[in-house]
């Protein structure tokens, strides 16, 4: 089977490793070495897990440093990412530490999410951005959280994808663009005021979202019908 273009483009880097280049059959998605930890020996180790059901479990006990070390390893070494901002990193640690493994059930669970949880997530992202600017002087985390708010608006928009929602789609696009503008011009004090102005403008759109929720794809039967129509 011939290589796809994206596979050919990365082959020079892929085969620079002497341990795998001799096979000449490896693909980009088969490269298992970390640049930070490679020791020249093919010695794969079991992937750690946060699940209590796994034999190689990373402790989520906040009195240990296992979880922070594990996360830094994933972000900065496994995925070659930048060092995370302190506020964001602390938030991820708190989230993972609060997960309840016993709440997980086997099989497929169907979630019938409504508009209210989505609006709550949007509000939390905005609150977090304000906190990052006012109390932590952390514009990068604020930018990240405002981006999260934009993503939430985008997710809401996918549920209002009916012909009668064209005007609402335009309003959602404008709301996201306004957040992006504030994200690119962060200033302590002024940013919080701008977010408050955004919230005030958002109230009309939120009211329309609530009115139209019954006619949106948040309704499970409508969503099923919509997905089956493609």
Helix-strand string: HHHHHHHHHH
Q: Helix amount, in percent?
A: 55-70%
Q: Can you count the helices?
A: 10
Straight-line distance between termini:
31 Å
Q: Which structural class matches the secondary elements? A: mainly alpha
Rounded Rg: 23 Å
> Regions with pLDDT < 50 over 5+ consecutive residues?
1-33
**How many β strands by DSSP?**
0
Largest sheet: none
Principal-axis shape equals globular
Mean pLDDT over the residues: 77
Percentage of residues in strands: under 5%
Can you characterise this structure?
The chain has 230 residues and is mainly α. The chain contains ten helices and no strands. Among the domains are: 1-44, no CATH class; 115-229, no CATH class. Mean pLDDT is 77; it is low at 1-33. The two termini are 31 Å apart. The radius of gyration is 23 Å and the shape is globular.
